[in-house]
Design a protein that fits this description.
Order of helices and strands: EEEEHEEH
CATH class: Alpha Beta
Bound molecules: zinc ion
Radius of gyration: 14 Å
Distance between the termini: 40 Å
Keywords: Endonuclease, Hydrolase, Nuclease
Strand order of the largest sheet: 1-2
Largest sheet: 2 strands, antiparallel
EC number: 3.1.-.-
Protein name: HNH endonuclease signature motif containing protein
Helix content: 25-40%
CATH topology: Homing Intron 3 (I-Ppo) Encoded Endonuclease, Chain A
Pfam families: HNH_3
Strand content: 25-35%
Structural class: alpha+beta
Number of strands: 6
CATH architecture: Alpha-Beta Complex
InterPro entries: His-Me_finger_sf, HNH_nuc, Homing_endonuclease_His-Me
Oligomer: single chain
Length: 101
């Protein structure tokens, strides 16, 4: 894939940051998008599905590196919506604490 930039974002391994089209700036935005068979799809889902297969309907993919534009399969983990929300909240608290230092 040519539309990926390898960037060290502080995660265990470098991120593969998408430099192609995204889903925009609104709610649910800032995710990598591409065209596949005439349909617009989320690149990180394609990347994960390629390696692991079907994503069960109630599950979501969480970016362990917290980079929405990262499409590296090993940085993604299948979680429930509740787990994803909890992690997001924990990350927000950690960021706030860091900013307060
Ligand atoms: Zn990443």
């Amino acid at each position: 894939m040519a539309r990926v930039e390898v960037v060290d974002t502080g995660h265990e391994t470098p991120c593969h940051i998408w430099t192609g089209p995204t889903s925009g700036d609104g709610r649910g935005g800032q995710y990598a998008r591409m065209s596949l068979d005439g349909q617009t799809v989320a690149v990180h889902k394609v990347s994960w599905t390629n390696e692991n297969g079907f994503i069960p309907g109630k599950k979501q993919l969480d970016h362990k590196c917290r980079q929405r534009l990262c499409v590296r399969e090993s940085h993604l983990e299948l979680v429930t919506h509740r787990q994803n929300q909890k992690r997001r909240a924990a990350a927000a608290v950690a960021a706030a604490l860091e900013a307060a230092e």
